[in-house]
Structures are given as C-alpha cells and as structure tokens.
C-alpha cells in the first residue's frame, strides 16, 4: 500500500485543502483554531472526569487503577492537539485505547468528529465501522456495575453514530459555503471580464468611427495644403477656393471630433448621440468630394435610398467614404466611380473604383487599417467585402450588404 493509493491517510495539510476547517497546511493556528481546539480538549476532559468519578465510586476498584486511568485519560485529551494534522491516526489510536480505557471515551468522540469533518466519506466509514465493531469490547472488559452490558453497548454505538453524523453535517455545510464563495468569486470575475470586454468593444467602435469620420476630412486638408505648398503661384481665386475647402474641412473635422468626444464623456452609450450618416446623405458626400476638386461619378440605382435600413445605409456610406479617401490618397486626379444598386430582398451592392494615377504625386501617409475596418464592419452587418487591384489597372472596393424584404 502506498500513500498515493490512499491519500486520505496523509496529514490534513494534503487532504481537502479547500475546506475552511482543514488548516494543516498552515504552520500557525488562528485565534479561532485555538479556541476550538481548547474547547474540544476541555469537552473530552469533562467526559473523562465524569468517567473517573464513576470508576472511583466503585469500591471494588483499586486506587492504583484510578490513578492510571486518570493519567491515560489526560494523555488522550492532550493528544487531541494533533487532531487537525493526523485525524485518521489519532482516531484509530483512540479507538484501540478506548477498548480497555473508558476514560478515553471523550477523546475518542472528539477524534471521530474530527475525522468526519476533515475527511471524505470513505475513510470516515472505515474508521466509524472500526469504532462500532469494538464498541462492545470495553463494556465487556470493564463493565459498569450500575449499567447492563447491552445498555452500555447501545449507548456507545449511539454516541459514535451521533458524532459521526454531526461531523459529516458540519463538513457538508463547509463544502456548501466554499462552493457558494467560489461561485460568487467566479461571478464577480466573469462580470469584470464582461465589463472589460464591453469597454474594449466600445473603444474599438469609437476608434473605428473616428477613423472613418476624420480620415476623410483630414485627407482633404492634406491634399489642398499640399497643392498650396507646391503651387505658390496659383491664381488668387484658386488659392481662395483651396483655403475655403481647408477651412470648411477643418471645421467639419472639429465638429465630428466634438460629437465623438461627447459620446466618450456621456454617462450612457447612446447610439443616437453619434454621427449617423445614411444612404440619403451619400449625395452630400459626393458633392463635398467634388467641391474639394475630385472627379467623382455617382451611379445610384436605388429607387428610394431613404427606405434602406439605417445600419445598412450607414455601412454603405462608410464604405463609399473610405473608398473616396483612399482614392484621394493614392490616385489624386483620377476619376472615381461610386456605384450603388440593389433593393429589398436583394441586398445592396456598393462599389468604389478608380483608375491608376497617370501623374506622379506625393504619397499621403495613412494607418493602413481602413480597409480592415471596413471588412469587419461589413461582416458584422451580415455582408461581405473584397478589395484589390482592378483587371485594367487601378483599385476597387466592392461590398454586398443584406436588405431584408
């Protein structure tokens, strides 16, 4: 037999460490442990003193036997100090000792209670069966003159069953408390994780919104500022028009930024407080791009753009906005075509295409995350998006989004 095969024979430091009562893993007792252990020793000593008084009252008992019984009972009570560390061994020792020493009965009951509290059912059943098996031996070897053998045996059996049942009830209650605490701790952890995930998703959503809104405005600023830098001899009218576009774009960028920052400062995350473009405002986006000097052709085949779902229309707007921004960065001066088609039950198809640039230009820096964000946005909306070079040159962004009938 090895210790790994019977782990319940190990000290309590290595068995059931999750229970509040199993404190063998700690080298120092708490104040509660001291109180409980001293109380258990005093209870066992009280039972032992009553037994000694009964033995001493019997005139046929020699005085030397009373002294020996008292000493053995004191040793048994003091041995209860180790009931937390070796409950199984102590209970077995007390069971054997109680067969010939009635003064050790109190220590036996406390030891059996400790086993029931600190060990699972199998070792408790084995130790309890052993204690019940030897219960008739002590009344037989040292009978009580005032009590019959049968009555003494029945009382001993009932006391053993009582302390074992009481100990198992205490253990079950402690296990229930540990389980409830673990569930509460797990629930708090899961709630914190859900809150953290929701906060992270909200931040990602706001960051995506800021990219979609501000990239378009800031690209206009960069393009026109670059034109003024490289053409200082431009006519005054053209310089004034470019300066007006820069001023308007900066104003719109600040306004959009103010609205998004307002969402961050708001105590509630209301979708209606954010900028909400729709398909109906797509024409205004095209007009703004044309005013900035872009060549944009809008081919809108939707009969009633305002009837499209708000979320779908907003996604179409963002795709067109990002496509125009990328075309302005990477193909300035090229004609961009924005095509929108579909209807209820068919879905909405949006495509933004531009030919390859024909003249050298200064590259406008970008984050490189716009198309990735568009793909994610389209996927979350239940659609799909692909992008890449066109067969005849240039670049294209194509997306399909659902439109329920």
UniProtKB/TrEMBL annotation:
Gene Ontology molecular function: kinase activity
DUF7134 domain mapped to chain residues: 32-174
EC number annotated for this UniProt entry: 2.7.13.3
Catalysed reaction, written as an equation: ATP + protein L-histidine = ADP + protein N-phospho-L-histidine
Record-annotated Histidine kinase/HSP90-like ATPase domain positions: 314-403
Transmembrane segments: 34-53, 65-82, 88-117, 147-169
Name of protein: histidine kinase
Higher taxonomy: Bacteria, Bacillati, Actinomycetota, Actinomycetes, Kitasatosporales
